[in-house]
Input
Amino acid sequence: MFRWVPYPFLRFTPFLMLGIGLATYVNSTAVVTALAVVFFGYASFVFLISKSTFSHYHPWVAGVASVAIVLLGVLRTQQHDSSRDANHLINHTDSADYYIAQVVSQPEPKKNSFRVLLEVEQVVASDAQTFIRSGQVIAYQPKSDSCKLLQFGDEILVKGLPDEIEAPKNPAEFDYRQFMSYQGIYHQQYLPADRWTIVQAGVIPAWRGWAGEWRSRCREILLRYVQDKRAQGITLAITLGLKSYLEKEVQTAYAAAGAMHVLAVSGLHVGIIYLIVNFLFRPLLYLPKGGVLLHTVICLQTLWIYAALTGFSPSVQRAAVMFSFVIAGSALKRQSSIYNTLACSAFALLWLNPYLMYSVGFQLSYLAVFGIVYLQPRISAWWEPSNKLLAWAWQLTAVSIAAQIATFPLSLYYFHQFPVYFWISNIVVIPGALVMLPLGLATLLAGLSVPALAGWLGLVLEKFILSINFLVSLVQKLPGSTVENIFISASQTWLLYFAIVALFALFYYRTLRYLSLAVASLFLIATVQIARYYQQSKERSLTVYQVKNETHLDFTEGFSNIHWGELSTNSDYHIRPNHIQKGIRSQFMTDSLGNDNIAYSSTDGITLFQYREKTIALIEQKLSKTPKQTIPVNYVIVAKNAVRDLNQLNQCFNYEQLIIDGSNSYYTTQKLTKQAEEKHINYHAVSLQGALTINL
Output
């Protein structure tokens, strides 16, 4: 029988997570507080007066305690939710012309801008009346303003209020608004130099910004001594956790090879730091007095300084907390189960920030470590090669397989692909990380003190990274290296994990009933997939996507799809998720494309589509001629500000519905929607209402 006593946090943490998940659906904080006090008081009372000891199992006491932890999870989540504050900017309905905020991050370079985080203090109305408000705003400064960038600690006056982050406007699109809300951020604003002015510089104490300042300084040092662009991206990602410098080609290669985890600072990197520090300062343990304490303090300080420099990502926090428990336990000469240590670190992190539970990095990180701890010894026992090199390679392969088994359902759910040769690439990249990270740190230290040595170390690091990149690209180019465009729903993900657990229970208990559970789960997954495929095979539709400044149409016939528009990195982000979810194969519409289901012709910026007995007119240029009689069509799509007055459009076309796509300016969209409402015309503005799908 499994003994729960050595694993208390394996019991506590799941109930805390359940409370975090339920917090969204519970509104009355007072009721929850009262219930939590009652349950906790009752459990404490029973514990104090009970004559029986807790060596025996008391299901009623355990039930009360579990409910109490769930309620505490609800309370902590609601307490952490800044939007519940009446003074939060999201609850501000009064009109205002300005707001005052503090800059609480260093400028972070993006592709076309610099990003900073603002902490709102007050909003200022037109009559100079001020309102105390709170909240955080993501501000983007154009790169043309690089000579005048906001700096950490500045207090600024900003013209205009920030915009709320919009919900996704295309089917299956990534919900960026929800993603940012889990970080307590609900607003964003484009902030050129003429829209803000400094009220006071250095308002926030300098010590609060040391991590960001040092991170920026370290970034500049590494960029100076590592010259190659591809090597720069890898160096900054693996050393400081900065992924904005990674080139798309490099990211694609590592993702396809199943090695992307090396580029995200995680437990592997924190473990390397711990091994280095533990090795360098191990002689302190042999000092007669205070050696153990000094060794412990140095190890803990180093881990958390590194965590601060890498931006406190969830995976780094998890690793730093876990290693902190291990270091403290070792100093106190206490040994604990690694499972309990992991669960304890998760409990601590979730208590500090409940919304970490929704972080992809947090989820994958813990699943990977749990998988490695539990599965790796069992997998490595399958084969015991006598050759040391083979044994070393097999151990790495076992680690990779264990982590992949634990994370692949969630990876399929989030990333829709599976790297087939992950076990090969990890034999290369994991030892590579053991070299790249120390070399990167050595280059940093040398850059601060011995520039000549830093130049030599940077060159060695650059050449080493390029060689690793070359090997990773070889793995990527292997036939069938990546299975792509996989879609599974959240329910299928849970069922897949249930099947995995049942299969391992089968091997552990050797009871066939667990096989029946696994088979039943897989059968349900297949049933859901077949039902979705059947539904998709019946679809006949036109979809008009919302992509700013671009026109994109889908003509879908079952699993075949004809796409109108030029896909770019930006449009692919908005459109591809829907294609993956539907499992459709897309072709681009060209003059040479032959298709029995759709025909089109273009004249003077007007394209007429004939699809499933419906006629669609796409207008991309100004109407220059007025026909003698109106052209009957079913749908008119106005694009690229081609129409400014519906009177002219109505003289040319007789239509059932007007569609205003995302390539039109805000001014044009507002003008056309107002005219359509006045004329009682059926319309849909995708930039305001989201993408439109018409079943034909």
About this structure: Residues 388-415 form the longest helix (28 residues). Residues 5 and 55 are 9 Å apart (CA to CA). DSSP finds 21 helices and 24 strands in the chain.
